[in-house]
């Protein structure tokens, strides 16, 4: 995808974080951005700002974990704007806590958003892209799906078992999708950022088995860590744009993203050792 201007992009989790800054970067390039989020007010703010930056913006409430809701959303987008050129499955949450204190409800929620949400978005919009492309000559086929994973997809972390597991699943899902959807002219990229200055730690759930006192300590520790890293999410958005332009398969972002990937390939045992570093639980 080389030309953004005049195209349509759907971004989930667009109320804040990577979703918001990527939506705005696409709007600056002249795209109509459909900002989707369970936080409708936040999505509306993103859409309004997108309109101020030279593109167009629309907002939509959607729960990505709800397959029927995502199908309804995709149908509404197609009816109003046609099949989108770009879909960014960004919506995600974090659950922090030891494995044995992470309850069934915690697993259901994080799998629903982080993994099933990506499946739902990719299926609903990917099917429409494929149906459109099959009626076109191969040279005119288009459509790009971007799935946001994490550097945590490479590196085990003792206090983030559910998060690491779902993000690793998103990375492998993306690889499978890229191979499968190529026949229909649909490109797929997976983005694996390291730490960045988003609200993911502030909004993260602490596992249901962790005491309230310990949960407050963990949240404070996590937020402080992200502030110290101070890697702007705008840099992540710029790299996502580049990945789309270059049609890159899997993209690691920032030092810890590249380092985690390297360690996972060269010395997995070192990664396992790092995973044992004590956390404030």
Automatic annotation (TrEMBL):
Pfam families: adh_short. Keywords: Oxidoreductase. It comes from the Bacteria. Belongs to the short-chain dehydrogenases/reductases (SDR) family. This is Uncharacterized protein. It comes from Actinocorallia aurantiaca.
